[in-house]
Amino acid sequence: MKLTRIGDIAEFINGYAFKSEHWGSTGKKIIRIQNLTDPSKPYNFTAYDIPEKYIVKDGDMLVSWSATIDIFEWHNEPAYLNQHIFKVVFDHKKVDKYYFRFALKQTIDSLTKFAQGSTMKHIVKGDFEKHKIPLPDLVEQQKIAYILSKAEALIQKRKDTINGLDELLKYTFLDMFGDPVKNPKGWEKGGMVEVITSIKSGTSYAGAENKELEQNELGVLKISAVTDGVFKPKEFKAVSIDLITKQIIKCQKGMFLMSRANTKELVAACCIVPKDYPFLFLPDKLWSLSVNEQRANKIFLNALFKIESFRNVIREKASGGHESMLNISMMKFLGLKLPIPPLLFQTQFAETVAKIEALKAKQEASLRELEQLYQSLMQRAFKGELDLDKVEIEDVYKGFEYFDGGFVTFDDAKPALDKIREKFETLPAIKSKDKKLIEKIKKLDLDKVQLGRIPFDKDYAIYRVLYHRFEHYQSVPFLTIYDWLLTDFVDLDYNKIKDFVFRELNEEAPIFEQIFIFNEDEKKYRTELKLLL
DNA sequence: TTTATGGTCATCCAGACCGG
DNA sequence: CCGGTCTGGATGACCATAAA
Question: What does the record give under GO molecular function (predicted)?
């Protein structure tokens, strides 16, 4: 495939070098690299007037070129760009911005070889602009971006499900046992000594990071193997067996591990080791806790220690001169009090956890598969090996020409809208049902209403959404349309549609209305949605 | 003599900042 | 404005000391 210098298809505007006196708590957000890599990081704000060119709008692509070298799409209110990040201004006649994102991600590793500086890796603007990506014609680009977006969306969906299962675990705990500190269910309280029979601490060894283990090496775990609350067998350092003189504790299935040191936030992270790892052993900062099985279930304890309120109780016992590396002693830990529900309940909880974990394992396996598929798709796409002839991008999406940022007015969009309308006007008209529905609503007893299914015609909805928006606001941000089409409607996932619909219901000028219908056969109410005219 | 504890020092990353 | 260095926080390495 033809290679093109990215400097020829887009302009890269570097962010503004804000000084600390520019920061405040009011005004516009300042986008720093950490805000892109970690959404939980707080923003700095500035009330100063900075030139227009540093403003980033919703949908803008950003490339960080210092330390973290990656590309991000900004989905947020207009904000200022900090130094070390480029804002990408595309030549829309030549390149599709989503295609560009995928193409750059695919080739980003080769960019790091240009990185300069000793303490901190930088990419020099000139080198960056010289970087080449494969560039087929625009329609092909859109098709590639479309396929990859689909794969990406599936991956995200798996990740969401996995996170959801984690949440479910937490709620299951709180539902069964209540908050462990307030102890609203009045469980018998006991000392940690009653449930933990012994604590074994590992031994300190230095080693080489990020490498595979050789024949004559063992891995000493790092705190980070436990930090996230899930055992991570890859977080170790390699140590030559010859150097190991002290007694070590090998990492075995069922071990209940806890970190005795870290920042206050992360101290007392714990997890259960899922299987034997004969080549890994514990470092001095990790404990292996033995549980008195007559009194407690370690799955229960593992969940308990992860509940924020109880974690705080443990954290309070940590000490140290530097806030950045606090320690807990065994005595202090064993001196803590905890609620100890009857073993039967704990076992029941553990069974539920096992079920959720099994679901999670399935989702994780699927996620790995998808990620592999995604990788191979990426590679084939940029080698020009994908059969794009079979790819039909949704007609609606094709109807819109590229618009150079900003807003699409009603007139801009009218030809495309007309085309859509022609296609959809004959569709099963929710319209004709509307009158009957309204009659029914009048007779409803709203107190007895239950949520139910949402009958939903995707194509018709797209048309209605767009038309309504145009009528109501006269113009619509182009990117909003693009996103709807690309992300909300590429698949017919019920939950996604539901999310979308409920978002719409909460809008100031909603295009949906929730209505309630009595089903004569089932003898109960269910909700339906009506598109407002 | 061994182990647990509570540190400090070193390193790396990310951001602050500055000279040309 | 650009390209680089300085600085501080987070984490890992490792140790002196006290207790067992």
Answer: DNA binding; type I site-specific deoxyribonuclease activity
Buried b (16+ CB within 10 A) or exposed e, A155-178: bebbeebbeebeebbeebbeebbb
Strand order across the A68-73 sheet? A10-14, A85-90, A61-66, A68-73
A376/C11 CA-to-C1' distance in Å = 35
Looking at the whole model, is its pTM more than 0.90?
no
- The pLDDT tens digits for A360-378 are 888 888 888 888 888 888 8
Which residues of the protein have their beta carbon within 7 Å of strand C?
Answer: A 14, 16-17, 51, 83, 116-120, 122, 124-126, 204-207, 209, 220, 222-224, 227, 235, 237, 262-263, 265-266, 283-285, 322-325
Q: What is the pLDDT of residues A246-291, one digit of tens each?
A: 778 888 888 898 888 777 777 788 889 888 888 888 888 888 888 9
Strand B contacts in A 55-94 (CB under 7 A): 66-68, 82-84
| Residues 37-56 of A with CB within 7 A of strand B | 37, 41, 44
Q: Which two tokens stand for residue A491?
A: 């698949």
pLDDT bucket at A79, cuts 50 / 70 / 90: confident
CATH 1.10.287.1120 residue ranges of chain A are 136-180+342-389
Q: Where in chain A is the domain with CATH 3.90.220.20?
A: 3-135, 188-340
CATH superfamily of the domain spanning A136-180+342-389: Bipartite methylase S protein (1.10.287.1120)
A198 CB below 7 A from strand B atoms: no
CATH for A188-340? 3.90.220.20
pLDDT at A490 exceeding the cut of 60: no
Please tell me the predicted confidence (pLDDT) of residue A259. Answer: 84
Nearest protein residue, CA measured to C1' of C10:
A324
* CATH 3.90.220.20 given to domain A3-135: yes
Which pLDDT value is given to residue A532?
47
Q: How distant is C1' of C17 from CA of A251, in Å?
A: 29
A300 vs A57, which has greater pLDDT? A300
Which residue, A410, A382, A416, A412, is CA-closest to A398? A416
Mention every residue, 6+ apart, whose C-beta is less than 8 A from residue A416: A396, A399, A400
Of A281, A286, A255, A283, the residue nearest A269 (C-alpha): A286
